[in-house]
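Duplicate of #3305? Posting structure anyway:
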């Protein structure tokens, strides 16, 4: 692990150069990988949408004031990245001197009918997850869409969609962003001097002189044995050539497909709050977890749908924040990129046993696999191999046309507290004074992301709102699986989860 002077993120201020942008640290290996993926169109962004409710209405002035507070709190919201120079210099983060919020905030009217609104949100997310960011245009690597019901009547909910380049933050950061906005809306910060105009008084922001947080490679081990990892990566093409091939019929959609512009398709499903409580109770009694259950349920559905699918490979995202040494003061309240992934294999004989309605034994095994990965800490993580790749573009393009490795992927952000006084990183309720009027709340969270051209055939993005629904967004690349196939998976998954939550209504 690289050694450097330890500085708390909240004290990591650097002097800004008046009247210009400021060059910050060099991108880490994985961050460089994300930049190349974005440039090629292999993966554009991540999105988290929050539904804000109160007895009032969320107007332009309030949104811009809340965004100002978020930018002041989170350095990732004030940066872009530099392009590699002709001399081969590596890209850096660049803190913007200033930018205009009106250029990255858009307002969209949506129907009042809930079913029609859900379809419109699917459409908007599909459109946004298929759209990248321009580098060098003076804007940060994120944008906001404000979805308001036609007429924007007082008391009607507002869906605020935060879309960001993966290089600046991970999925958990999307929840951090919405917590910050919620806190800002409910704060007593003075609005004196704010103006609902575009003359620069309110829309122009000046990010504070703070650096972004350290890259994963600087603060985590990632690879226990760098020499073995380097040898393994260098000789992988020859190892793959000579080792016996997997003889099972693994389903993973179409081969890696690259036909720019790459389009992501989205389909949502949800589990109502009352069913989610029973599902959690069922998981507890079966000694498994929601994430492990979802992995197993998806594998079961795919094998039932695809008769010749004997083998499936699931990629599971994992947050690395829990492994970061305390001296760096990085916790769940900060925005940054600290993630990895591991794999779980599923085989037909285990999933579809005779006289077995649902393979709870496989769900338990999946939970143990998750626990094993967490027990490893920050050692031997797949993400650590990024520093041994000399040419990211060549590595990615070399996959095109070959058999896809991952069948599906699951990323579960966990539970988001959308109450007016959410718990802090230690789970303690904040005792801040709330507005005299009805405070703002977030009643629903949706999580989605771009398809991975070099990743799994279908992605499942999962998040729950405390005391409310769990939402699952399926995302896939157009042409890799059909709309009919993805829709069948979504509908069957929702039905299966509801049946498992209510066993008296179905034999499970």
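Output from current build:
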């Amino acid at each position: 692990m690289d050694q450097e002077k330890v500085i708390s993120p909240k004290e990591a201020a650097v002097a800004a150069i008046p009247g210009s942008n400021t060059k910050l640290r060099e991108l880490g290996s994985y961050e460089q990988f994300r930049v190349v993926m974005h440039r090629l169109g292999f993966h554009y962004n991540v999105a988290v949408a929050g539904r804000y409710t109160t007895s009032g209405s969320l107007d332009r002035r309030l949104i811009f004031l809340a965004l100002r507070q978020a930018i002041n709190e989170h350095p990732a919201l004030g940066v872009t990245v530099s392009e590699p120079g002709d001399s081969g210099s590596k890209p850096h983060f660049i803190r913007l001197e200033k930018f205009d919020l009106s250029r990255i905030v858009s307002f969209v009217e949506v129907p009042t009918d809930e079913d029609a609104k859900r379809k419109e949100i699917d459409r908007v997310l599909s459109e946004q997850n298929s759209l990248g960011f321009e580098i060098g245009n003076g804007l940060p690597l994120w944008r906001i869409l404000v979805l308001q019901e036609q007429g924007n009547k007082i008391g009607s909910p507002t869906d605020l969609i935060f879309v960001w380049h993966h290089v600046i933050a991970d999925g958990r950061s999307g929840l951090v962003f919405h917590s910050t906005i919620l806190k800002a809306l409910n704060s007593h910060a003075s609005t004196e001097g704010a103006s609902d105009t575009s003359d620069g008084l309110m829309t122009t922001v000046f990010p504070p002189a703070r650096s972004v947080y350290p890259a994963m490679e600087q603060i985590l081990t990632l690879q226990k044995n760098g020499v073995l990892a380097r040898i393994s990566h260098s000789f992988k093409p020859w190892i793959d050539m000579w080792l016996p091939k997997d003889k099972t019929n693994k389903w993973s959609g179409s081969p890696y497909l690259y036909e720019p512009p790459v389009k992501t398709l989205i389909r949502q499903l949800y589990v109502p709050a009352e069913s989610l409580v029973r599902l959690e109770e069922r998981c507890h009694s079966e000694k498994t977890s929601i994430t492990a259950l979802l992995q197993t349920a998806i594998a079961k559905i795919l094998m039932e749908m695809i008769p010749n699918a004997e083998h499936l490979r699931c990629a599971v995202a994992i947050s690395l924040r829990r492994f970061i040494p305390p001296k760096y003061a990085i916790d769940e309240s900060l925005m940054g990129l600290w993630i990895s992934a591991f794999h779980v294999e599923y085989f037909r004989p285990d999933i579809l046993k005779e006289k077995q309605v649902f393979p709870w034994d496989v769900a338990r095994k999946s939970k143990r696999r998750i626990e094993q990965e967490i027990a490893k800490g920050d050692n031997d993580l797949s993400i650590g191999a990024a520093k041994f790749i000399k040419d990211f573009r060549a590595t990615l393009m070399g996959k095109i046309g070959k058999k896809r490795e991952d069948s599906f992927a699951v990323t579960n952000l966990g539970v988001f507290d959308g109450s007016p006084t959410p718990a802090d990183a230690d789970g303690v309720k904040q005792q801040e004074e709330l507005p005299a009027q009805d405070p703002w709340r977030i009643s629903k969270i949706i999580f989605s992301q771009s398809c991975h051209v070099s990743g799994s055939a279908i992605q499942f993005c999962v998040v729950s709102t405390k005391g409310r629904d769990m939402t699952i967004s399926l995302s896939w690349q157009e042409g890799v699986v059909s709309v009919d196939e993805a829709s069948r998976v979504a509908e069957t998954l929702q039905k299966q989860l509801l049946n498992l939550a209510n066993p008296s209504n179905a034999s499970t």
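Confirmed duplicate; merging threads. Confidence is low (pLDDT under 50) at residues 1-19, 188-201, 237-244, 423-428. The radius of gyration is 23 Å.
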